[in-house]
Recover the amino acids of this structure.
């Protein structure tokens, strides 16, 4: 760290302690952000006058337990529209005093949660001709998207052809300077403002919120693609529905206190469905789970909350969305996948995974192994293409073979033409890459290793990615968090699964398109994977049901979706290119992964509109 950076860090650290007093590891007399949950808003306290009285109560409670010199600065947020509580900077001694108050249900730390990152609706049975016929009913539905904001200039959120905003809408467009809402994107609120970032905007600098919102309710946009890949019509489940953005996430994550504020406002604003693709890596007790608390009050006001199950499903008991009233969604594949072929100099063709938009000019290029193009790393590090190992002069104009998928960034940094790498923990997912690259299963990588070691002039060509037919779909995604429910074992989670692998949807040009910082490309549509992507599919389906049955309760809509799920889950992993996923992914395909099965055939005879149960 240089002297200027160190000085800047020290100033920020001093200010944080002086003003926020919220260090990451709080000692007895140090402050950190806590949430004080007090249950429902008292009966009759639904006016602005009463909201102010509730906030006065919160301030009075803080004045009783917090030192006079800090009591006015302690309050972070007051929850007073849809439920009762507040967030504040407290010492451990102060929080213990507050916890003893009769009106306090629970006091817990405000955690930092994270986002859980075209023809998917056709695959689910909700064809475009069906949603067009449902336009008038769908236009009365408002979906609240609690996420990283929305890029309002996207075609997916144009209000061309939309009628007046439903009169039930009580929200606002407080998206920041120059942020505009319309009759499609009816509202925006921001909860990521802070002392260091007071002018935060609802603009989406991550891309996640734009993607999830358009998956749930984006307009039909023809010829959408990611640099020509997966081209087709991108649309939401109910394109005629309205959306409202509640920005709780930025590059630093999603604070619990912000999430509760978003729920507090969204319920009072008049949304019909809430979709939230944000969560923790592990489940916590529902008394200290902000999403469980917020969604409980939403349910009591007739608003269904659809929540992503999580992306840590590499072992049982990993599902983080556990409350009974939440509609928890796992992820599956669909019948369209993305693959990247490589052709070796001996004519052998191998199909790998990646979203590679680059087109190489030529037919074949020198192929080198990481261990053979280093001058200062040991062999194991060089084989993995570890940071700093590849010699730029030895890889220029060549394709580099790496034994680790982290070698992609090192190949780009060193100036390699392209790279072939080994897959990581999610072998069934194609991610956007910043240079020509293909990710291979271990058995396929060994074929390439054998070829490189057998000749002095190895060659390879990496094709641009293309869409493939996943004939074995749907398959539960490897990353999709699994049950059993570790907090309430008698409640099955997840509830359902839906497409969440390689989903094309709207994106923000303000956001990076890959995980590599030096990749400066932008995109209006992107291909992402995660239960974050499956969650808005179910939110869209719920909005479709709600549009036909506006009087149905959240429980009725949830029941209709769960009890009419399709039980067709394939264990076959072949495609027209014969991609074969690891055998271990075929094991343990059970209810703890599937929930009540997958949402398919939305308009079949025994559909979600007429569940008959």
């Amino acid at each position: 760290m240089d002297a200027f950076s160190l000085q800047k860090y020290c100033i920020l650290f001093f200010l944080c302690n002086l003003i926020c007093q919220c260090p990451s590891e709080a000692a007895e007399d140090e402050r950190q952000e806590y949430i004080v949950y007090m249950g429902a808003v008292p009966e009759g306290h639904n006016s602005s006058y009463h909201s102010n009285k509730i906030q006065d109560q919160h301030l009075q409670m803080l004045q009783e337990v917090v030192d006079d010199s800090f009591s006015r600065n302690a309050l972070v947020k007051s929850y007073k529209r849809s439920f009762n509580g507040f967030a504040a900077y407290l010492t451990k001694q102060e929080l213990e005093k507050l916890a003893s108050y009769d009106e306090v249900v629970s006091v817990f730390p405000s955690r930092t949660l994270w986002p859980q990152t075209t023809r998917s609706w056709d695959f689910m049975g909700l064809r475009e001709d069906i949603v067009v016929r449902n336009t008038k009913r769908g236009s009365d539905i408002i979906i609240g998207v609690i996420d990283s904001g929305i890029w309002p200039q996207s075609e997916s959120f144009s209000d061309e052809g939309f009628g007046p905003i439903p009169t039930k809408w009580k929200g606002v467009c407080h998206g920041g300077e120059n942020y505009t809402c319309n009759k499609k994107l009816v509202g925006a609120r921001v909860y990521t403002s802070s002392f260091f970032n007071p002018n935060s905007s609802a603009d989406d600098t991550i891309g996640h919120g734009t993607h999830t919102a358009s998956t749930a309710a984006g307009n039909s946009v023809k010829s959408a693609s990611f640099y020509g890949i997966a081209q087709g019509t991108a649309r939401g489940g109910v394109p005629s529905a309205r959306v409202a953005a509640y920005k709780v996430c930025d590059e630093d994550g999603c604070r619990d206190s912000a999430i509760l504020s978003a729920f507090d406002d969204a319920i009072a604003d008049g949304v019909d469905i809430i979709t939230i693709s944000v969560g923790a890596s592990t489940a916590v007790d529902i008394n200290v789970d902000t999403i469980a608390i917020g969604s409980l009050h939403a349910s009591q006001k007739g608003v269904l909350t659809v929540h992503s199950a999580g992306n840590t499903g590499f072992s049982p008991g990993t599902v983080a969305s556990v409350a009974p009233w939440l509609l928890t969604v796992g992820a599956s594949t669909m019948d369209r996948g993305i693959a990247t072929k490589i052709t070796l100099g001996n004519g052998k063709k191998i199909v790998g995974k990646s979203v590679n938009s680059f087109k190489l000019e030529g037919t074949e290029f020198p192929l080198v192994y990481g261990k053979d193009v280093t001058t200062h790393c040991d062999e194991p590090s060089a084989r993995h293409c570890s940071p700093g190992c590849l010699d730029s002069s030895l890889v220029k104009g060549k394709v580099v073979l790496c034994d680790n998928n982290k070698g992609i960034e090192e190949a780009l940094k060193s100036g390699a033409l392209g790279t072939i790498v080994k897959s990581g923990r999610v072998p069934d997912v194609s991610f956007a890459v910043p240079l020509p690259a293909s990710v291979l299963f271990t058995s396929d990588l060994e074929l390439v290793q054998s070829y490189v070691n057998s000749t002095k002039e190895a060659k390879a060509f990496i094709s641009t990615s293309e869409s493939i037919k996943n004939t074995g779909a749907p398959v539960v995604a490897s990353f999709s968090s699994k049950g059993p429910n570790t907090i309430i074992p008698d409640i099955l989670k997840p509830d359902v699964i839906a497409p969440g692998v390689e989903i094309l949807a709207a994106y923000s040009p303000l956001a990076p398109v890959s995980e590599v910082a030096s990749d400066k490309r932008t995109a209006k549509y992107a291909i992402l994977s995660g239960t974050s992507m499956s969650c808005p599919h179910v939110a869209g389906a719920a909005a479709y049901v709600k549009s036909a049955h506006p009087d149905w309760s959240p429980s009725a809509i949830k029941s209709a979706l769960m009890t009419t799920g399709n039980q067709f889950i394939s264990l076959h992993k072949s495609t027209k290119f014969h991609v074969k996923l690891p055998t271990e992914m075929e094991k343990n395909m059970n209810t703890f992964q599937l929930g009540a099965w997958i949402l398919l055939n939305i308009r079949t005879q025994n559909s979600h509109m007429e569940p008959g149960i």
Observations:
- The chain has a mean pLDDT of 85.
- The longest helix spans residues 3-20.
